[in-house]
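Example record used in the benchmark description.
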Amino acid sequence: MKLLSAALLAGGLLAGCASTPPGLPALRDQVRNFTLDARFALRVSLPERPAESSGGRLAWEHKNGNDRILVSNPLGVGLAEIETSPTLSRLHTADGQTRESADADALMEEITGQPLPIRQLPDWLLGRARHPGNLKNDGNGRPISLAEAGWQIDYAYDDDAPDALPSGVTLRRASEIELRLRIEEWKTAP
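Model output (structure tokens):
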């Protein structure tokens, strides 16, 4: 159950990398919908408990404010599928269980024991802050770090293009949770 909780936590904290396919817009401000495939490494260090680490793969589709996230082990075997909409969030596990909640963040906390900012993640992946003063850009004008809602988000890029999407994203909450994502493919749409 601990590995499943860690995988679900990672699925909830998803993020981004790699190159944008030709012909698709890369301007962060124009991106509204995206799909991405990524590898993740998750470390959870809670007081009075041994640290837990896990890793795997995730496939994420964000379209019209709805999300579908498939979390798999490193070999690609599906562990869980998370679906969120503005009104309902649903989790399907590999063992056939389903849980639902009107609040995606609360659903993830119920399952993993950790409060997770599921609804904020699409914006964070693209370097969008609720308060622009929380965002720092690099010399090319790209997001390099963001501090918001108790989370630190750091971005990495594979090239120097000003419109490049992140090739890596690391999310940290204090010393308790660290999620590193490496996107193998970004597909974006306005």
